[in-house]
Structures are given as structure tokens and as C-alpha cells.
Amino acid sequence: MNIVITGRPGVGKSTVFLRVITHLKERGEVLTGFRTPEVREGGIRVGFKIVDLNTGEEAWLAKRNADSTVRVGSYGVLVSEASELIRKSLETALKTRSIVGIDEIGPMELKIPVFKPLLLRILEKETVKILVVHERLSDKEILSRLENAAWYEITESNRDKAPSTIIEELEKRLRNY
Ligand SMILES: Nc1ncnc2c1ncn2[C@@H]1O[C@H](COP(=O)(O)OP(=O)(O)OP(=O)(O)O)[C@@H](O)[C@H]1O
After folding, report:
1. Residue ranges of the chain with pLDDT lower than 50?
2. Which residues are annotated as a binding site for ATP?
């Protein structure tokens, strides 16, 4: 079962994701996968980290001043550091019976070569997955595997209620799981 959270940049997708994930952890569920929170210094966004949802381990995904030839907007992607953590977290997701959370599937994450093949294998799994998808994601191999997912488009008017809507849907499914 796949739950997809999407919506325009900055609308509150990661906040919805985190509330759902936090609720599931409190409920005692095993979570694998990762999130990619922004890092701010003095109020200014300087980059993004990857945080493993299972272990809490962190690595840099991209930094504004990184000396990297792989770039997304004004950020340099730290491919080898990010690959290591993405590979570890998604291999654990593949091996265990857990709920998989990924925030997000977007251009920056897709610059990490290990990400897409592992993601495609995870999308074939019969487990519960909660995925934040960039609204302009155009990768057909990924999108075709999400055709039967429950899609939630986050807007300013539904973002406060969205976590409980998604949690209710999940609780229903998990009871029959
Ligand atoms: N329900 C809400 N009410 C008020 N502010 C919110 C709410 N949800 C998110 N925000 C604020 O909006 C900003 C963007 O939130 P968030 O990072 O969750 O969005 P996003 O859609 O994941 O962004 P991005 O596209 O950059 O990944 C944050 O500053 C957050 O505090």
C-alpha cells in the first residue's frame, strides 16, 4: 500500500510527513527510509541533510557551498556521502518488515545513482510506504508504480487536517495488514 504526499514547493508536505511518521513511531511501528530536512544557519538555508528514519544517522545531501560538479539549483550534491546513507537505509527497508517513509522523491535525491534502483525495488514490495513526491516528478518508471497509490495533494486549506486524514486511512489498513 502506497501513500503519496504531494503539492507545491513549501506548502507543508514535509511537515505532514513528519507528523504521520512521529505518530507511527509513538504507536510502536518499525520505520525505515529517510527524510531530507533543510539546514538553516542564521535563518538562511545552507543545505539539506539525510536522516535515516530507523537509526537517526545523518549525512549531508547537498550544501550551498559544496565543491561538487553535481548541482541542483544553487546546491552542490554530496554524492558519495549521501549514497552511503541512502543505500544503507533503503537496503534495511528492503530486508525488514517495516513501514517505509521517504521524504522526498525529487530532483536532488535522483542525482544519487543508488537511489532509483533501490526505490523501484521498494515500490514492488507489499509493505506500507509513505512517500513525498515532488509535484514535477516526471520519471515514468517511478510514476507508473505509483498509479494505484492513495495520493494526497497538500494545500494551505487541508494541511492542518491532512496528518489525521492520512493516519486514519493508515490505521484502517494496518488493522487488516
Ligand atoms: N500546517 C501548517 N501551518 C503553518 N505553517 C506550516 C504548516 N505546515 C508547514 N508550515 C510551514 O511552511 C514551511 C514549509 O513547510 P514544509 O517544509 O513542510 O513544506 P514542503 O512542502 O515540504 O517544502 P519543500 O517543497 O521545500 O520540501 C515551513 O516553514 C513550515 O513551518
Report:
1. none
2. 7-14, 99-106
Three-state secondary-structure class, residue 3: strand
Question: What dihedral do alpha carbons 78, 64, 45, 87 form, nearest 10°?
Answer: -10
Question: Mutate which of 15, 134, 135 to test ligand 1's pocket (most atoms within 8 Å of Cβ)?
Answer: 15
What are the tens digits of pLDDT across the range 38-75?
A: 999 999 999 999 999 999 999 999 999 899 999 999 99
Residue closest to 105 by CA, chosen among 95, 92, 90: 90
CATH number of 2-34+88-175: 3.40.50.300
Query: What is the C-alpha to C-alpha distance for residues 121 and 140, in angstroms, rounded to an integer?
Result: 15
